[in-house]
Each structure stands twice: as C-alpha cells, then as structure tokens.
Design brief:
alpha/beta; FAD/NAD(P)-binding domain; binds flavin-adenine dinucleotide
C-alpha cells in the first residue's frame, strides 16, 4: 500500500522534510533513484549567519537560524551521532577598504554575530586583520544524508526506486537535477557547480573556519584534515571534478594560509539556485508540491522551509508569500 506522502529526492531537502514528517508522526515514503547524484553529498555544510562581501546577515536569519540549530540537535539525539560542529568563522579582510566597509556596517543587527575583531591571525595571510563571526559552524551534510537514508530504510520509509505509480501526494525535493529536468515545474534557475578539496594542513587550527572568498573548514576528525572550496561554474552542471576547478580552489587556499598542504580528495556537486539562496516552494499544475532552491545555504534554510511546507500540506495554510516561486 502506498504511503500518504511520497518525497522524491533524498538530498538535504528531502531528508530534512522526511525528518519533519517523522518527528510529527506523519507517514511518508522517501525515494531516490540515483543515490550518488545528490549535490548534498559534496556540500561543505557551513552555516554562517553572515557571509559575503557586503557584511549583511543572511536573509531572514532571525526566522531560520534557531529552528535550524534545534533541528540538527534533535536529529543528532535520535541518530546518536554528531552532525553539528560549532566553529567560529575567521573572516579575513581583503584590504583596508574592506575593513573600513565592515566598520561602517557594524550596526546593531551585525553586533550579535561578532565575537571579536583582531589584527593578526596565526598561520593565515591576514595583513588587514579579521572579524570573527560567532554562532556559526558546520553540518556534516553528507553524513546527515547517508545516516538519514539508513535510518528511514530501517523504518521502511526509504527506498531506492523511481516514483511508484500508486503515489498520491508527491513532494519533489529534487535539487538541481529537478530544476534542469523541469520536474515538476519549470523554474528559471542559475544552478552552479562547486568543487571541494579535502586537504591535510599540518599546523592549522582545527577549531575554526577561515574564509575570504575561499574557505577552509575543519572536517571534525582532528587529523589535520580540512575541506577547502568552492568555485562557482554555471555552465558545466555535472558532478565531475575538473582540473580547472581544483586549480581555482588551490589558488584560493594559498591566498588564505602560507602553510604547506596535501590534497587527499576532490569532489564536485551542483547547488540548486533559483532566487539567490532563498528556498522556493509551491505546487505544480497537477497539484504536486515542491521545495527547491536551497542554493549555497541549504543548512540554514532547509529545516524551517520543510516545516512550512509540511504545515501547508497538513493544514492547508498558505505558504508564506516570500517562499513562493514567482
Ligand atoms: C560544492 C558545494 C558546496 C556547498 N557548500 C555549502 C555550505 O557550505 N553550506 C550550505 O548551507 N550549503 C552548501 N551547499 C549547498 C547545499 O548543499 C545545497 O543547497 C543542498 O545540498 C541542496 O539539497 P537538495 O536536497 O535540494 O538537492 P540535492 O542534494 O541535489 O538532492 C536532490 C536529490 O533528488 C534526486 N532526484 C532528482 N530527481 C529525481 C527523481 N525524478 N526521482 C528520484 N530522485 C530524484 C537526486 O538524485 C538527488 O539525490 C554546497 C553545495 C555544493 C555543491
């Protein structure tokens, strides 16, 4: 017998929606037909309240941040494993102009996220100092996806199959592949491939993220390994790592630290981008629901976005206007 809700696509979005269903006792079947295709399996999973060159807090941070933190803590408890790693982000200033821009932007909405402003950062190329953001960290997204699939499989709620013909209420969480396939709707998108290196950097602190365009994130294994990325490529939307992608990431890496490094691994994935990194959701003409467009900030936006979508399905409540695809 088919379950009342079929979630199509088991990446970050689909697994998060599955957890929201599970935690509320809503029966569902999560399905995936290409288990290694998810962009989520390549993601670094950083969750940083302030990103980018403009020193602005992320879009609707007050609405999405706390639910995200609570969600990962809840899933960690059920799975009995660590998914969230608390790391401050050491955002190196590009130059004196960049630092002056930060000082000008340093108003009350930025203040809660500032741990410190410093002039020197050990083992980093930081001639003009850095701001250290707090409240930030990393979700091990690949682990979250793999463990969620295994957990739901054990609960007979995950299958590696195509959409069953008996499926009634279908929710598409199909990421960049769904956007390219226009499944279940045709959304204009600017999805972007990104490549990430796993590197060993002896001597670099393993309890913080370093960022200035490129970022270096500890893997959490305490074996001097880090993730380093990521470039943006809007033309090649494959999951294949490339020599030019690696070159771009390595060039960014050497602009952050003078320490020698060794490349251990190289992966690529595609970020589903519709409206910057703002999630979008809605219904197709056939009545199927979808959640997509998590962009470069899936870890921040997926939990609350999935909750809004589930609420809409259960109660008929309107999806907030700012989350609807226009
Ligand atoms: C290199 C890189 C670095 C990133 N870094 C960060 C970061 O630091 N912080 C952050 O928050 N975000 C980051 N992201 C973005 C984040 O990972 C994405 O927003 C998120 O993973 C998207 O998840 P998704 O579930 O929408 O898509 P996906 O992970 O792509 O999952 C979609 C799934 O749907 C499946 N599917 C598609 N069509 C069908 C179908 N017809 N039937 C069955 N299954 C189907 C696909 O096979 C796929 O498994 C990064 C992404 C990349 C690529």
């Amino acid at each position: 017998m088919s379950k009342p809700v079929t979630i199509v696509g088991a990446g970050l979005a689909g697994c998060t929606l599955a957890w929201q269903c599970h935690l509320r006792g809503v029966p569902f079947l999560l399905i995936e037909d290409q288990p290694t295709a998810a962009g989520s399996l390549a993601a670094a999973g950083m969750l940083a309240p302030v990103t980018g060159k403009a020193f602005n807090p992320s879009w609707r941070i007050d609405e999405f941040y706390q639910p995200a933190r609570e969600f990962y803590a809840q899933v960690e408890q059920v799975l009995g494993t660590q998914l969230w790693y608390d790391y401050p982000v050491v955002r190196l200033f590009f130059d004196t102009k960049d630092r002056a821009k930060f000082e000008k932007k340093r108003t009350s909405n930025l203040e809660p996220w500032i741990a410190e402003v410093c002039n020197e950062v050990p083992n980093a190329i930081a001639d003009d100092g850095a701001v250290i953001w707090q409240g930030s960290g990393r979700v091990n997204v690949a682990d979250f996806v793999r463990r969620s699939r295994a957990f739901f499989q054990a609960h007979q709620s995950y299958e590696e199959t195509s959409i069953p013909s008996s499926a009634k209420t279908i929710i598409f969480t199909t990421g960049a592949r769904g956007l390219v396939d226009q499944n279940p709707v045709n959304l204009p998108h600017r999805s972007a491939k990104g490549e990430i290196l796993t590197v060993k950097i002896p001597g670099l602190r393993q309890d913080q993220i370093i960022s200035r365009g490129t970022w270096i994130v500890p893997t959490g294994k305490h074996d001097e390994t880090f993730l380093c990325g990521a470039n943006y490529d809007w033309d090649d939307l494959s999951n294949t790592p490339t020599a030019s992608g690696r070159e771009t990431v390595e060039s960014g890496l050497t602009s952050l630290t003078p320490l020698p490094y060794e490349v251990l691994d190289h992966v690529a994935g595609v970020r589903p981008i519709v409206r910057r990194s703002e999630p979008v959701m809605g219904r197709s003409a056939e009545g199927h629901a979808y959640l997509n467009g998590l962009g470069s900030k899936g870890t921040l936006y997926a939990p609350k976005a999935a909750e809004y979508l589930l609420e809409h399905l259960l109660t008929g409540d309107e999806i907030p206007l700012y989350l609807q695809a226009m």
